[in-house]
Design a protein that fits this description.
Blueprint lengths: L9 E6 L3 H11 L4 E7 L2 H11 L3 E4 L8 H11 L4 E6 L4 H10 L3 E4 L4 H12 L7 H14 L8 H13 L2 H11 L4 H8 L3 H15 L6
Parallel strand pairs: 1-2, 1-3, 3-4, 4-5
C-alpha cells in the first residue's frame, strides 16, 4: 500500500505482517518533517514496493510469513544503497542482530521501544547513527571483542588509513565490500548486483587497493 504523497523531508516505509503494529509504528514516527510513504504486510510485497517508492528509511520485522525480514534485507541492501534499513522486531537474539547487520541493516530495535524513542531513533538513523538497545549493543561489542585477533594488532596509523580507505570507496564498491564480507564469490556478487564478473573483479581490486589490504580475505 502506497500512501498519498506529502511534501515533507524524511520518508519511511514499514514492513510488518500485523496491521495494528504498522498503524502504531506509523503513528510513532509520523511528525514534523517525517512521512510514511508505504506499508507492506509481507517481504514479497515490500520487495516489489520499496524500489518504487525509494524510502529514506525502511523499518522491517524479522518474522513474517513467507520470506523473512532478513532475506528481504539481503535482497534490498544492494538494490537500494541509499535506503537505511532498520530491523523492528520482538527478537532479541544475538544471532538475529549479527545476521541483520551483516545483511545490510544499519540499526536493530525491539518492539518494546517506546513511541517517543522510536521517533528519536528514526531521526538518529537519518543522521547516520547506529540505533540499537544498549543491552544488545553491549553483547555485540563483547562478542566482536572476543573474536578480534590478538596477534598483529592494527596500530593507530593503520587503523586511520583503513578508515580513510572506507571513506574513499564508491557506493558500488561499498556494495561489493558488503557482499564480500557475506562470503559471496565474484560470480555470486555479479548475480546479486546484476553486473559482469569482470566488473566485479575490477571493483574488488579497487577495494583492496583503497583499503591497503593484501587480499579479499
Amino acid at each position: 500500500m502506497i500512501r498519498e504523497p506529502v511534501d515533507t523531508h524524511l520518508t519511511v516505509m514499514i514492513v510488518d505482517d500485523h496491521p495494528l503494529v504498522r498503524a502504531a509504528v506509523a503513528q510513532a514516527v509520523r511528525g514534523s518533517g517525517v512521512r510514511v510513504v508505504a506499508e507492506a504486510a509481507t517481504a514479497e510485497e515490500a520487495l516489489e514496493l520499496a524500489p518504487r517508492v525509494h524510502p529514506a528509511i525502511l523499518l522491517v520485522d524479522i518474522e513474517m510469513p513467507g520470506m523473512s525480514g532478513l532475506q528481504l534485507v539481503r535482497e534490498l541492501a544492494s538494490r537500494l544503497p541509499a535506503t537505511k534499513i532498520v530491523m523492528l522486531t520482538v527478537s532479541g537474539s544475538e544471532r538475529d542482530v549479527l545476521d541483520a547487520m551483516r545483511a545490510g541493516a544499519v540499526g536493530y530495535l525491539t518492539k518494546d521501544v517506546t513511541p517517543e524513542a522510536l521517533g528519536r531513533s528514526v531521526r538518529a538513523v537519518e543522521a547516520g547513527e547506529l540505533v540499537m538497545p544498549r543491552r544488545l549493543a553491549a553483547r555485540l561489542v563483547h562478542r566482536l571483542a572476543r573474536r578480534a585477533p590478538l596477534e598483529r594488532p592494527m596500530g593507530d596509523d593503520s587503523a586511520t588509513a583503513f578508515d580513510d580507505g572506507i571513506d574513499r570507496l564508491t557506493p558500488r564498491e561499498q556494495d561489493v565490500l558488503r557482499l564480500i564480507s557475506d562470503g559471496l564469490s565474484d560470480r555470486e556478487i555479479a548475480t546479486a548486483l546484476t553486473i559482469s564478473t569482470r566488473t566485479v573483479e575490477t571493483h574488488v581490486s579497487s577495494v583492496i587497493h583503497k583499503l591497503g589490504v593484501r587480499n579479499r580475505t
